[in-house]
Amino acid sequence: MRFVFDLDGTLCFDGKTIAPEIKEVLTEASHYGHQIVFASARSYRDCIPVLGEELSQELVIGLNGGLAYDEGNLIFHSHLEEKGYKAVLSWCHRYNLPYFVDDDFHYSGQQIEKMPFASHVDPLHLAKQLPLVELKNPIKIVIEMSRHEDLVEDMASELTLLNVMDVSYFAHEKCLYINPYETNKATTIVDLLGNDFVAFGNDKNDKAMFKASLYSVQVGDYAFLEKYTDEKLPADSSAIAQKLKELYQQF
């Protein structure tokens, strides 16, 4: 069986680390004949310091399904269509909105320090912050909207109507997330692995993954996700490690 894990809020609770007891159980999956997969909104670049040297060699799906790495090598990527990409940048530059753009490893943007995840970007200095014109295959854009929340509805509506990208607003971060059209964690997981997988997640971003899975485990109390959940756990490392051991035997 494949076990697919979101990172932040599911396995990682401080934005930087996974508890040793969880890591130990993750590395035992192969003893039961299982495969471990990670699926995150993060770039692969920013998953590496959280996962560590060994686990980062597993299949890692990043940028909400926009790319996948296996054994440290890029095996899949999608990218934003030029029409949509230019439309997003037009909004950002017109209103001087902070934004962050990822390609398959490097990044660009403006006022990056204002992004809610700025402190977690490339802590190992593996990538380059490129001038925007040098970022050739943009995959994901995050736009920080805290100073312009009045624009969110019109901006999201106009961009969605182009039918060339997926647009989601995360109110708790006050950020718009832009991904390639009909691309998310679930689409990439299913394309690469099929539907026979157990999913662990914690929030809105994991809904499609839960719906596509054979069995789903919610970590934490995000109400929106509960109706797609087979089982619910507290955001506690010991509880997660114990449940993993049980599910390894069950599946």
From TrEMBL:
<dbReference type="InterPro" id="IPR036412">
    <property type="entry name" value="HAD-like_sf"/>
</dbReference>
<dbReference type="InterPro" id="IPR023214">
    <property type="entry name" value="HAD_sf"/>
</dbReference>
<keyword id="KW-0378">Hydrolase</keyword>
<dbReference type="GO" id="GO:0000287">
    <property type="term" value="F:magnesium ion binding"/>
</dbReference>
<dbReference type="GO" id="GO:0016791">
    <property type="term" value="F:phosphatase activity"/>
</dbReference>
<dbReference type="GO" id="GO:0005829">
    <property type="term" value="C:cytosol"/>
</dbReference>
<protein>
    <submittedName>
        <fullName>HAD family hydrolase</fullName>
    </submittedName>
</protein>
<dbReference type="Pfam" id="PF08282">
    <property type="entry name" value="Hydrolase_3"/>
</dbReference>
